[in-house]
Amino acid sequence: MxxxxxxxxxxxFRQTYGAEPTGLWAAPxxxxxxxxxxxxxxxxxxxxxxxxHVVAAAAxxxxxxxxxxxxxADDPVTFGESETGTEPGAVSGWAGxxxxxxWALREAGFDVxxxxxxxxxxxxxxxxxxxxxxxxxxxxxxxxxxxGLDLPVADRPALAQRAENRYVGAPTGIMDQSASIxxxxxxxxxxxxxxxxxxxxxxxxxxxxxxxxxxxxxAPHQHVDGEYGARRRSCEEAARILxxxxxxxxxxxxxxxxxxxxxxxxxxxxxxHIVTENQRVLDTVELLRSGRIREIGPLMTASHxxxxxxxxxxxxxxxxxxxxxxxxxxxxxxMTGGGFGGCVLxxxxxxxxxxxxxxxxxxxxxxxxxxxxxxSATPGPGAARVS
Length: 387
Ligand code: GAF
Description:
Elements: H1 3-17, E1 23-32, E2 44-45, E3 47-60, E4 66-70, E5 77-79, H2 95-107, E6 115-121, H3 131-147, H4 156-168, H5 175-182, E7 187-192, E8 198-202, E9 210-216, H6 224-242, H7 255-260, H8 265-289, H9 297-309, H10 316-327, E10 332-336, E11 343-349, H11 353-367, E12 373-377, E13 384-385
Parallel strand pairs: 4-6
Antiparallel strand pairs: 1-3, 1-13, 2-7, 3-6, 4-5, 7-8, 9-11, 9-12, 10-11
Helix pairs in contact: 2-3, 2-4, 3-4, 3-5, 4-5, 6-8, 8-9, 10-11
Bound molecules: 2-deoxy-2-fluoro-alpha-D-galactopyranose.
C-alpha cells in the first residue's frame, strides 16, 4: 500500500488530538471482476481488493464517546451513546458511516471502547470502488482491535453491511464490505452471498503477462440511490412471484420457464441479468481455477452487455470505455460496481496499458466527455493493522 496515506492519517491524528495514535488500520477499496447486483439476490461475486486504502489512525479515549476527523472533511465530529443507541441514523454525512459501525457493534452486544480516530484515504470517491465500505471496514477493524472485541473476521462484513443498510440507509448487498475485509493478496474473492462461504481464487495476472486496467469514467454519479433501490425491489418482487427465496434459486436451465411466468417486460430483463450473471461468475471461477485467465475476457464482455441491455445500469461513458478498450485489443471489458458511472475493467496484455488508456481518452475526446483516468491494479490484501 501507499504509506503516504498512513503517514497522513497519523499526522492528522497528532494535529487534531495532540497525541500519538495507538495504531494504524488500513482497509482497501475494491473492484468486482464479475457478478454485479447478484449479492442481494443471494448469488455469487468475485471482487478483489485495490491498492488504494482508507487508513484509520486511532486510540482509545479517556472520556466517553467517539470523535472522528478526516483529511477529506473540515471539522471533527463527536458522537456519544445517544447517537449510537437504539435509533439508527442520528449522525449524517461521512461520519455517519463510522457512527453506523459503532451503532451496529453496540447493537450486537459489544462494549465498544470510546475512541478518537483520524482518517486519510486515497480511494477515489464516487468512482464505484467502495470508498464508503473501506471507511466502514477501517473503522470496524480499528475498533475491534482497540477494544479486543471477539468478532471473527468472517462475521465482520455482515455487521458493516448492517451499519450501511440500517444506519446510513443505503440498501446495498454484502459484497463491498466482504471485499474490503476478506480479500487476500494475489487472489480474487469468490463469495457465496447466501452462505458467506469464500474461496480465494488465484489471480496472478503478472505471471500470465496480463493486467487489469481500471478506467474511471469520471461520469457524474446520478440517480444512483434511487435506481439501485428500484433494481433491488424489482428482483425481490420477481423472486416472490416465482416462489423462490431469491433469484439465486433460478438456474439457467429454468430461466425460460421463469420468464414465462413474469408479465412485466422490465422485470423479465432484470431476472435474465441476474440468472445469467450468476452463471458467468461460476464459469469465470472455473476458468481461473485452471489458470485460463485470458479466457475470462468474453465472460466479462457478456456481463457488460447484460448490464447495459437487461439490467440497464450503464451510461454512455462506461459503454464508450468498454468499446474503446475492446477495439484496442482487450480480451474483455466491463463496468464494475453499482452502475450509472464508475469504473470499467479491461483485461489486457500487460504491455498494452498505455495504448488502451490512450484509446479510451481519444474516444472520450471525440464524444466531448470529461477525460477518463486509468491505472492498472493487482489484487491486494484486505483490512488489517499496518502499524
Ligand atoms: C454496490 C453495492 F454496494 C454492492 O452491494 C453491489 O450490489 C454492487 O453495487 C453491485 O454489484 O457496490
